[in-house]
């Protein structure tokens, strides 16, 4: 099993973990954490592929650049997410998703 | 004459009228807007007569489309703004021209709609323009636009002005959803046609259909494909006519609509379906129609017979006439399918041409007679304060002899009494169908008998017998009330005696169809 | 001995003194069998042992320096009983700490309560590994050393929050929240200043940054340290202020504000865990001082060319000690801020100025080839670019604020 | 670092985006400097005006970009950006749609004390909307997974904020949180899929990916990547089974934000995915022509499309809330647009673009009506629309036109879009292909759709308002800017239906 | 002379030792306690220290949202550094246009800061 495989298995596990957290948790912040885990799993993939795979000559740094940008995006997403969670908190006085059930039909 | 876009004028003048009326006064109708509406409605017949009479206009001896207008429109889809007139179209334009103003006048004068609103003439003019567009468009896309556009004014006419709001709503929805559902499948078929042939022009498609290229092209991409496209288009048209199992929307829609709208619906809108069969389905899919004809004939026959029986069972006069419409239009379809069945066989030229002529005549005649009958029932309703059960009246002949006379003429025309217009069409149809499919014709006579039965029952129960409770104190018709009936009744007589007046307009067409049918592969 | 041979001797002495650690290292390896993995292991362990002992002892000495120094500032002798001049005081303190009973609140989150002090020390040590203390005292030479430093250093915020939260004490929690807010706020100027140094050096490697400052001008008297540039002086001031706040030092020691919130996150700690917190904090201070030295004071380099005979492993501790003295001096001089003042200071002054500093560095680096009178323009321009925003922001911030008026004292 | 980076080209490629950036800075800056001194109304007006001018200048910049002839594309900045008719059209389209929704803001001031969406911070709203528009525009020109992802996220993040912009509304907050959580997950899926694609091909430039995949052929890992990308896409497009957020957002978000989410976002998203799927993954598309062909993303898209049409149409039938109804209909429309994605192979992006654009215009029209009604009375339930004909004939007329366009009634734009799209889908291989059956299903479902659209129209045009609720019967005064938005969307819906060549001409 | 052949191997070892260091010290204390000073817990001693008062209510209280605002702001600027660092490291070889691009980036962020300042989000309340 090569290093790349290990990285991929790790990232897949991380992704699965994040997905499980995002789907099963009822606390919005924990769901957000799960989403962040999923994003970071993808980042690990990028870095692993960049490090261990043969590259196209046209852009040898694509993987790492992608990872840098997606970290930034993940951070922005966390920022927006926290802001939205605060907004919900102001109305519901908690961040449990099962309480946010005003919209349905 | 050629420089004037006459056909566009025919279509769009009512729409311009609708716009003007709408702008004139948005809420309450007044004399000016009413008069304006009638004038714009009348424009159709004026244009049509102009087209026949004026030099450079319609040439009855020529076959093929005349007065064509073609402009590029949607280049990316090869869709053109294409109008054309031939004998068939002209017949229907004339019919619309006659019934349109009549029905409009009838809507106010005779059987006033429940809500006094200027919306009514606006919608009515829109409906009239759209119907005319259907009869004149020669490109599927344009045709379909008008086809669908006719639906919405009709929907609102039924829904907003029907006597019984709840029932009218239901009927209007039923009407729109049935028709739209059918149209959706038709659209699907044409999308496929476009995808394979790249054109939507009726003439071009008919050309492709006649020499078998169309089927070959469709078959290239899958065996069941021609059948499916055909089925889609058939469904769309069958709902509109309506063909037997798809007719369930019709009685309630006709019954719940205000009298004027019923007149227009039965006289013009139902013809759109038959027109579609003749203009689209038959030329484009001759082989498929021929193959499906036995089945379809059974359905048409069912329409003839069961429509008549159903009409007999009705206690509501409007529903009765509605079912009789199913019956009458099924004659047309029966004839058409019978002709389609024998396509490619050379032995039946006389029968074919008689069936086709009969079909066209029957369309016209049914328009006149059914509209007149709806008008009469509208009058009854007005007089009795909304009653229209067959048992609510009695002895009307004594109370209102003029009314009884006029109504009787319409009824006998509908029944097919020789000497009145109905006879010519039905006679020709039966003559043709007997030559092409004798057993079907024989069975169809049953429908004829039952029609006679229920119409006579109607006659007897309403006009004869002791004077009913509701009839007492009814007045006979006033001049104003007679006026709308006059053109129709007059035409009934004229066409009953000299149907050639009309037949001359479409005979060359029928002759050409007849030869082309026998020459089909 | 003629001067020439004297110079030779002198130089060879300096070289030998400089390479002393290498020779010791080689000697130790020579005693061992020639297995590569063993050599690597021993080398690594040696580096670790050196780091632990050096910084451990430095920590001890700094505590006693601080106590004595503060004493002097306040006109009292400071510790003077244990050992000569009280020099053994830290060891006595350690023994006392070991002997003290370790009290854990019954309601605390026991696991986190235990982890928190360990984590403080742990992360403090991690950051120390990257500080280049000399050409042969660079335990860890990473291409992205700056990133490593901040990655490891930022984690100490977590430890403080752990401590505050696990104590189950309101004051602790408030303090840890405050600490968190303060740490992240001051982390930004710290980072941005590092970025500006990286811009000037063109590398993320800390030894690389040091190497960029290892030359002298004006006949070897003036070192080419970053501190001696217009942007560098500003950058260092900002970095130093941020470092004060990052290590919860006075005047930014709000999280531990005894007079308001008992002792903040330390309230529920006693015994050796308390000592560990202290150790961790001092390790953090040492690391940040080391960083400041690396970034601005030429790292292990001598200030003048002729002073090179003193080995680099002397220079670095000397500079470190002076930095620590500066910390102590500030602590003795300034008063504690309020939290709103603190946050305002970080966000409204330090962050914008560090952003400005980036621009100034860009200007400075791009104008490196200006000579003659243009050189003057370069200096003036860089100073102006730094000063004008500072004045503008400063004026804006102090708008409406005057000396406090004391109602009753008038 | 590559020293040959041509920054002039970068600036040329991103002129509209630069214009948007400057515009949003101006909007924020002006509001910061002078906003406090102005009345609420003036403040809102200035912000909207700046937004519109900015979008206009972006349109101007776009118009002054050289468009390569149809079938060709220009590549900029080392292949990071692509410019062709689709990109050109989408840029123009999103700027226009965005401008239309901006007009709604000024109109959405509550008249009474009723809780209706209102904007305390118009400049911020405009700025965020411009950011979202920038994201759309980037999605339109991206030729590279990274730019695409950035554009996608820029747009998404801005839309999350816009959905939750009404701070006084519980529903708005809830909607935006749900939108965010679903969208974040979708982004993660997509990013993971991108990373796998990158791993397999070693590049993030779409044509290079296609070349590399053509050599490799399909593999299980590729299938995983495709599914992940499509899951992300499904969420974005609100296609079943990833649609759960859509009804909530349509219901809870302020009307202008919902309008933007329903219009420009869809247009950009579908254009971007058509490009990604065809230009990047086209060599592993699988077979839309025959059943049982090689597996690829087309089968997945077909399944999602069918599921969306079925679920959207059927669930819409049961709705009593007008906005939710529109949302479910949007899901159904997403299904049809997915069919359009498949049909790109046959007819190019023209049908898809036309459909998405006209759908967007009509939806904006509907939401404009909702926004206008909300000025006097809540507009959530379908029954809230009752008596609209009497309260404002103009609104009723616009609603009539737009809803009929959504239903696909000729001669409105929606009809032509459907027709063109179905023809394109059938063009693949007639009915005998999976796409053909899908088109068939789409037709059948549009007939179903007609029913619920008529329910809305019935409420608006026929039903009388319930007596007693005074707010529900008073006349609605529509502010000028909303009138412009309403009139524009209705006029465009009609005009584009009658002269579709105005749009389709781009693609011919 | 670099000590480690691979820097990450050294980091791994260092992490282990750095973790062991405080744990080892605490172990020494534990041994001392075990050998000489058995603990004598009592409810008062093990209670929460609040200046001699009894603790009231739950200590794990919810904090006001303002803390999160700072966190969000920090997040944004922290990520900014993510882009600044690669830029800074290669600053010397970049063309001047790259500087302009970066300047635009910084200005955009600075604009965000000014906005937050203007809206009063930087004031601790």
UniProtKB/TrEMBL annotation, chain A:
Keywords, in A-Z order: Cell membrane, Membrane, NAD, Quinone, Translocase, Transmembrane, Transmembrane helix, Transport, Ubiquinone
Report the GO terms under cellular component: NADH dehydrogenase complex; plasma membrane
EC category name? translocase
Q: Does the keyword Calcium apply?
A: no
Where in the cell is the protein located? Cell membrane; Membrane
Q: Which family does it belong to?
A: Belongs to the complex I subunit 4L family.
Q: How does it assemble?
A: NDH-1 is composed of 14 different subunits. Subunits NuoA, H, J, K, L, M, N constitute the membrane sector of the complex.
HAMAP family the UniProt entry points to: NDH1_NuoK
What's the protein name?
Answer: NADH-quinone oxidoreductase subunit K
Supply the gene name: nuoK
Automatic annotation (TrEMBL), chain B:
What GO CC annotations are associated with the protein?
endomembrane system; membrane
| Short name of any one Pfam family annotated for the protein | Proton_antipo_M
Q: Where in the cell is it found?
A: Endomembrane system; Membrane
The organism's superkingdom is given as: Bacteria
| Occurrences of domain NADH:quinone oxidoreductase/Mrp antiporter transmembrane (ranges) | 137-445
Topology relative to the lipid bilayer, per the entry, is: Multi-pass membrane protein
Question: Which segments cross the bilayer?
Answer: 6-23, 35-58, 87-106, 118-137, 143-163, 175-195, 224-243, 264-285, 291-309, 321-343, 355-377, 398-417, 437-459, 480-506
Report the principal subcellular site.
membrane
- Name residues in a coiled coil: none
Question: Family, per the entry?
Answer: Belongs to the complex I subunit 4 family.
The name this protein carries in UniProt is: NADH-quinone oxidoreductase subunit L
* Sorted UniProt keywords: Membrane, Transmembrane, Transmembrane helix
Task: Please list the GO biological process terms of this entry.
Answer: ATP synthesis coupled electron transport; electron transport coupled proton transport
For whether the record's keyword set contains Cell wall biogenesis/degradation, the answer is no
The molecular function terms of the Gene Ontology recorded here are:
NADH dehydrogenase (ubiquinone) activity; NADH dehydrogenase activity; ubiquinone binding
TrEMBL record, chain D:
Query: What transmembrane ranges does the database entry give?
Result: 12-33, 45-63, 92-110, 177-200, 220-238, 297-318, 325-346, 352-373, 394-417, 437-457, 478-499
- The family this protein is said to belong to: Belongs to the complex I subunit 2 family.
Its Gene Ontology cellular component terms are: endomembrane system; plasma membrane
Q: Provide this UniProt record's keywords sorted from A to Z.
A: Cell membrane, Membrane, NAD, Quinone, Translocase, Transmembrane, Transmembrane helix, Transport, Ubiquinone
Q: Give the matching InterPro entries.
A: NADH-Q_OxRdtase_suN/2, ND/Mrp_TM
Describe the function of this protein.
NDH-1 shuttles electrons from NADH, via FMN and iron-sulfur (Fe-S) centers, to quinones in the respiratory chain. The immediate electron acceptor for the enzyme in this species is believed to be ubiquinone. Couples the redox reaction to proton translocation (for every two electrons transferred, four hydrogen ions are translocated across the cytoplasmic membrane), and thus conserves the redox energy in a proton gradient.
First and last residue of the signal peptide: none
Occurrences of domain NADH:quinone oxidoreductase/Mrp antiporter transmembrane (ranges): 142-428
Q: Which reaction does it catalyse?
A: a quinone + NADH + 5 H(+)(in) = a quinol + NAD(+) + 4 H(+)(out)
Q: What class of enzyme is it?
A: translocase
Location in or out of the cell: Cell membrane; Endomembrane system; Membrane
Q: Which HAMAP family match?
A: NDH1_NuoN_1
Q: How does it sit in the membrane?
A: Multi-pass membrane protein
GO terms of molecular function: NADH dehydrogenase (quinone) (non-electrogenic) activity; NADH dehydrogenase (ubiquinone) activity; quinone binding
Q: What is this protein called?
A: NADH-quinone oxidoreductase subunit N
Listed EC numbers: 7.1.1.-
Q: Which BP terms does GO give this entry?
A: ATP synthesis coupled electron transport
Key word Cell membrane present: yes
Which PANTHER family does UniProt cross-reference here? Answer: NADH DEHYDROGENASE (PTHR22773)
Automatic annotation (TrEMBL), chain E:
Which species does this protein come from? Ereboglobus luteus
Please state the Enzyme Commission number of this protein.
7.1.1.-
User: What InterPro entries does the database record attribute to this sequence?
Assistant: NADH_UbQ/plastoQ_OxRdtase_su3, NDAH_ubi_oxred_su3_sf
Indicate where this protein resides in the cell: Cell membrane; Membrane
Report the PANTHER family cross-referenced here. Answer: NADH-UBIQUINONE OXIDOREDUCTASE CHAIN 3
Q: What is this protein called?
A: NADH-quinone oxidoreductase subunit
Asked if Manganese is a keyword of the record, the answer is: no
The free-text function statement in the UniProt record for this protein reads: NDH-1 shuttles electrons from NADH, via FMN and iron-sulfur (Fe-S) centers, to quinones in the respiratory chain.
Catalytic activity, reaction form: a quinone + NADH + 5 H(+)(in) = a quinol + NAD(+) + 4 H(+)(out)
- Spell out where the chain crosses the membrane: 6-33, 67-88, 94-117
GO cellular-component term (any): plasma membrane
tRNA processing is among the record's keywords: no
Could you tell me one molecular function GO term of this UniProt entry?
Answer: quinone binding
Describe its membrane topology: Multi-pass membrane protein
By sequence similarity, the record places it as follows: Belongs to the complex I subunit 3 family.
Query: Per its UniProt record, what Pfam families does this chain match?
Result: Oxidored_q4
Keywords from UniProt, A to Z, are: Membrane, NAD, Quinone, Transmembrane, Transmembrane helix, Transport
Chief subcellular location: membrane
